[in-house]
């Protein structure tokens, strides 16, 4: 599914009691990115990128400099341990930002994609809540 | 070196700055070329394989035809001997010898084809494996590249969007506040609905035994009994 098609479909769709807002980030000639806001939580947008094989859904959680320096190792260890139990999503680091992401096959159905988006949005909030103890005040 | 190892080394080496290509475009082109070459080799191997398999079948058919001829002529030779025609029998035997020589030649060719088929099948397998492996690695490289490009696009959006400059802590607080607000609104809406329907007041009155209360079955029974007695 093309990202702009996904954007149009999302606009008039509601699932699991949740609605979506989305818009394409202009990135002429380069990788297209769709910014999706789930349930009005524009603090934690999900960025959807399509590659040849995968649909990557990424939400940025916090920057490295927000982590209490002496707790960084513990945080990294915790995130690694949480990777398996957390449903459908995994933690990652992109540049200096910690992120949570899910990867889907490009052949996924629209229902699969919305389920992924809703789950990722919930996971992002839960994850942020769980790791605030490691962050600077 | 596998691509994953290269990526690992690059990340450790600090190539994680946005925009810095971990694997150069040249590397990707080489990979794509390797995949294309392997796919060509695969096509060639498959084409040869079908050709050789067809030839193998033809040769097998020729051998069984010769077997049939040999059996046939052996019967003829037997008949000639029965009729005491030794000279004819000898001539037939010579013919059988020719057939057998021809069969031996074909059998040699057949063995060559069979060997060739085994080799080609192995080549097809190898090519398929190599293509799959290279494609997997190429996917990794391309995904890395896509994520880098996407990150740049995202960063340029985030930087122009002041709300995203807030810390994760503040973001979380806002989200929690919004969720709380929503719950409060929902609660208030329910309260309002109950008030306008008068459900609340009715419930309170009923509790106090005021207003229309449902007649109790005991009362009804008492009324019926009273009627019977009168």
TrEMBL record, chain A:
Pfam families: DUF2170 (PF09938). It comes from the Bacteria. This is YjfI family protein. It comes from Pseudoalteromonas shioyasakiensis.
UniProtKB/TrEMBL annotation, chain B:
It comes from the Bacteria. Residues 157-167 have a biased composition (Low complexity). Keywords: Coiled coil. Residues 28-55, 110-137 form a coiled coil. The keyword Coiled coil applies. The keyword Coiled coil applies. Residues 157-200 are annotated as: Disordered. InterPro entries: PspA_VIPP1 (IPR007157). Residues 170-184 have a biased composition (Basic and acidic residues). Belongs to the PspA/Vipp/IM30 family. This is PspA/IM30 family protein. The lineage of its organism: Bacteria, Pseudomonadati, Pseudomonadota, Gammaproteobacteria, Alteromonadales.
